Amino acid sequence: MFFSVAVVPAAIIPAAPAFAAQASDSQVSDSQVQAETLPSYQQDAELIKQTFESQLYTLPAFKMGHYGLRMYRQTQDHKYEAAVWADMARVASRLNYFATEVHTPEQIKAYSAERIARYDKKKDVRSDLRYEETIDQPEYLYLGVDLLGSMARANEYGLKHREDEKLRQVIRRYDFKAFATDHGLIRAWAAQLANQVYWLQQLGEQDVVAEFIEAFKATYPDSQDEQLTDQQFMNKIYGMTHIIFAAAEYYQHSVNEADFQWIYDYYRDNVEQILARSKEDVLAEVGINFLLAGLEDDPVVEKMRKAIQQSIDREAGMVPAVNGSTDLEDGEHRNVLAIMLLDWKGAREVPTINRDPEMFSSIPYGLVRQ
């Protein structure tokens, strides 16, 4: 059998450079196809949700409530109601204990001494710093870290403790400005102090927000960023994110960018440094800060979303710790932030006893309507 061979004119044979360009175009197309086959941000948020929600009610009440309340505020899905009730029960238990067992100066002193001793037993840098900076004023742990947080959470639900006035009298014994403007405490507790000054304002007690922000800026001048350890750099960013979170009453309200222009400008000017020096918790919080201001199209949001997406351990279905741990209890905070960043659904003032009365048909003992 004979085969004929067609002769191709040389003029129509592609030159080598054109062939190379063609190959390059093919490679670009392959890369584009690969990128298009990656999960969407929303799909990755769902992956993390499935991991945590399959075991949500095995977590301690604080972690369960932290997750459930945030997801309810995002979605208003009734499946989170039991976790929200568990959070209310935890708050009621704490306030019941403080109202009956820890309210005199002597009781507070003993309680605070026991609390601060726990930090002395831990050996990480942050715990050492917190012990050193708080040992001379341990009552800060009782007032700021414990009492205020529980009272503010009850307030967000439209509730208060049945001995609310007794607990408010405890708050009034202290000038919180002394804590809020202490540079050492800011270096140890920046994010917590940001929460606390806004909680005081929310409760209609002391208003030291402006004084705290002034002291915070003096503690962490931008010109000295390069001199900070990574731990202190993250404490600075963490403090900034919580100023906005606390002002928004934790995903209940949007914020106005202009009211916090110094923070948003800093994020934009230092985004690469933040990415290089911060853990995933902090990166997610920076991104959510922009979402709370309605700035979803800001390039910083996309950078933070990509960083979080790339950090996901797909076999474990979650964002692991820096050391690779995929422990659900330790990772709850980090991962609920990742979910919100990747699939943001807006800020809503829920649940409250007035807007969602069906969720408050059985109020934990000790809490009453405001």
Automatic annotation (TrEMBL):
Question: Know the name of this protein?
Answer: DUF3541 domain-containing protein
Keywords of this entry: Signal
**What InterPro entries does this protein map onto?**
DUF3541
Leader peptide range in chain numbering: 1-20
Q: Which Pfam families match?
A: DUF3541
